[in-house]
Amino acid sequence: MVDKRDIQQLNRLYLLVAQRLASQDVEFASQVTGFSKQILSQIAELSLSQIDELQEEVSFLLFKPRLNESGFMKMLSMPSGVRGSFMSSALANTVEGQHEAT
């Protein structure tokens, strides 16, 4: 059974990864996370205690899947080795058009 702590751990890890990516390459971080550069700048400034406080107070995921249902089903049906290219293409289209990836 999934409980609140599982969600909190996912949020903490996601925020830490987003923070690390934002401090290295904000453009890439934006593509990977889907967050705007403005939000990433704020995440980059958070202390570890602020991240821990945030994740403890929220009981839902702070992120959402980058693919819509149709795109996810398409990816699941693809053979191994092709999925990465599909995701790169779908995310590139998403970033350009700011739409959910299909």
Notes on the structure:
The protein is an all-alpha fold and about 100 residues long. The protein folds into 2 domains: about 60 residues, Flagellar transcriptional activator fold; about 40 residues, no CATH class. It is built from 6 helices and no strands. α1 packs antiparallel against α4. The longest helix is centred in the N-terminal third of the chain and has 21 residues. It is globular, with a radius of gyration of 15 Å. The model has no long low-confidence stretch (mean pLDDT about 85). This is Flagellar transcriptional regulator FlhD. Pfam families: FlhD. Keywords: Activator, Bacterial flagellum biogenesis, Cell projection, Cilium, Cytoplasm, Disulfide bond, DNA-binding, Flagellum, Transcription, Transcription regulation. It comes from Noviherbaspirillum album.
Provide a compact summary of the structure:
The chain is mainly α and about 100 residues long. It has six helices and no strands.
Largest sheet: none
Helix content: over 70%
What number is the mean pLDDT? 87
Percentage beta strand:
under 5%
Protein name: Flagellar transcriptional regulator FlhD
Keywords: Activator, Bacterial flagellum biogenesis, Cell projection, Cilium, Cytoplasm, Disulfide bond, DNA-binding, Flagellum, Transcription, Transcription regulation
Pfam family, one: FlhD
InterPro entries: Flagellar_FlhD, FlhD_sf
